[in-house]
Amino acid sequence: MIVVTTPAGQIGSKVVSELLAADVAFKVIARDGDKLPEQVRDAADVVSGSHGDPAVLAQALDGADALFWVAPPDTSKTLEATYLDFTRPAVDAIRQHGVRRVVTITALGRGTEWQHKAGLVSASMGMVDLLMSSGAALRGLAMPSFMENTARQVGAMKDKGLFFGPIDPDRKLPFTATRDMGATAARVLLDDSWTGQNELPILGPEDLSFKDQAAIISEVTGREIRYQQVGWDQFKQQFLDRGATESFAQGYVDMYRAKDEGIDNVAERQADLKAPTSFRQFAEEQIKPALAG
Q: Is this model's pTM higher than 0.85 or not?
């Protein structure tokens, strides 16, 4: 039995789609199961509530062989509360119910000079350390930035022909589409042969700068789109203006500063783990229709 957290999330929903296609038994933990697609409610055992709740975890993990774990970002709390405090009940539940395998989403950078000073990245690694302490076999799927982060700025592209960020326009970085993360997570969950604990980099097929992304979007859409770099103070303030705590706002700054300095460039692509979606394909399928709408 596989248990999936965040089944309506960016990655969790894609994991669920893959499990549906594989026709396997699985459970999902959802705050509001009624909002899940009908085919998910029909196929899965839905456990209602928060997966930070020990009682909910006890119900969901009873008889479970594998767990897909994501700590949903909550910008109204501190990084420690969001990643570490939220995960501690899961560690106890994994031990208590003898869950053998855990798959989670983390970030690139373990073992680098930025590991302990990269904001959300560092917090996610602390979460993985907690999950490892459960004794279960673990695979941490380590991501760079998501392509969807660029797509979220479609409104600014429509209005101003621009998208924004604090990273150097010429800094080439790996990017990954969330659907590739979900497909990889499902594949690992469905494979019950692995043991041990480690992290696996899941990288898209190419490194691109944000200037490169802007050029691709322009070519694909036929509209001139440019990337504009913003200062770190302005970048932080936008999170504070949206209600983020100081801890979370600074965490975003520290994460993006580490990316600007090269934390995502340390990992090497692995042939058996390469995420296949190119940014051009993503722009064709996601950004072009959104800009045309």
A: yes
